[in-house]
Design brief:
Length: 128
């Protein structure tokens, strides 16, 4: 038995699609020219890197149960290596826009990119 769409079904689909587009544009953070990457371990900022002024590649090694390496280049940052079992953080790849985050949950490391207007003024996540 095949179900046929009713005229009301198209309105519902159209409403859901319109709501998704509106949410996409309203929840997206504006990208600024000045970008700072915050590297947070166990809820403590261990390093701040200005990505917009970075001239050379910077390598940050972190310790913990699963040590790893974070790589920062002009305008972007990523988990380059990690000893964690699932490697999701490495698979995230490069992040470069305000509001983007990359997380290594087993080692409680968070990389967050912020613009100059929001450094330290908001809390997105607390790890315990």
């Amino acid at each position: 038995m095949r179900l046929k769409p009713k005229p009301g079904d198209f309105f519902i689909i159209l409403f859901i699609a319109a709501a998704a587009v509106i949410l996409l544009f309203t929840l997206r953070q504006a990208d600024s020219q000045e970008k700072t990457a915050l590297i947070i371990q166990d809820g403590v900022v261990i390093k701040q890197i200005r990505l917009d002024t970075l001239e050379n590649t910077e390598i940050i090694e972190y310790s913990g149960e699963y040590p790893g390496v974070i790589e920062a280049q002009k305008g972007r940052i990523r988990f380059r290596e990690a000893a964690c079992p699932d490697q999701v953080c490495v698979g995230t790849g490069w992040i470069s826009r305000n509001g983007q985050i990359a997380v290594c949950l087993p080692d409680k490391i968070l990389i967050k990119i912020t613009g100059t207007d929001s450094i330290g003024n908001d809390t997105d996540i607390i790890l315990h």
